[in-house]
Amino acid sequence: xxxxxxxxxxxxxxxxxACAAEKTADPADDTxxxxxxxxxxxxxxxxxxxxxxxxxxxxSSSFTKWKTAAEDLKPLPILNRGFGGSDMHAVLAYYxxxxxxxxxxxxxxxxxxxxIVRGDAPEKVVEGIKVFVExxxxxxxxxxxxxxxxxxxxxxxxxxxxxxxxxxxxxEYCKTAxxxxxxxxxxxxxQNDKLRPEIYGDDKTHLNAEGYKLWAAAIKPVLEKVHAxxxxxxxx
Length: 236
What we know:
By secondary structure, the protein is α/β, with parallel strands linked by helices. It has helices spanning 2-30, 35-47, 61-64, 69-72, 88-93, 95-98, 113-117, 122-139, 160-174, 209-229; strands at residues 55-59, 78-82, 106-110, 144-148, 180-183.
């Protein structure tokens, strides 16, 4: 009788483990739609080798549509790997292929807005960011992660409170996190804390040329400071 109880308990433990494994794999299953984007990056890398020790831009379509990022942020070594519609689930699912091959000295991360639109709470967004930073600290201990605040856009006003809360939570997290820096580039896009529709494109979600110039002006000084401080001694 005791043997049967122990066997049953063991089966329950195995079943629980299997369920946990399935749950862990779910986000990866949900992110397979971005496989073509990641393969396109890998193809680009073979055709045009990326810069050494780059500033790696990882994020959603606000990066994908920032076609002038390298020009706006020059002479910094920018490598833009934004993939449209992505969220933190996608970034974590493709982390090994999206980040590690480049050995970035600095990472600029922009995610969270799509997560919130899809129903994630601000706290869940921050949890995903924490996992990302922990992965980078483990694999690239000298690399700094700059976490860009979610910008507030006219097409998503109903999510504004949650976006602001996510930004606040990330800022609080970065005060004590290792190698994580909160970069507020949202304020520069506002006027008297109000949205400026004229700096957005026709979809009222993504910045237009004027908006990207404002974004770059807020981002570049911080990147310059962090990337220079993080420069290897041999290169100084």
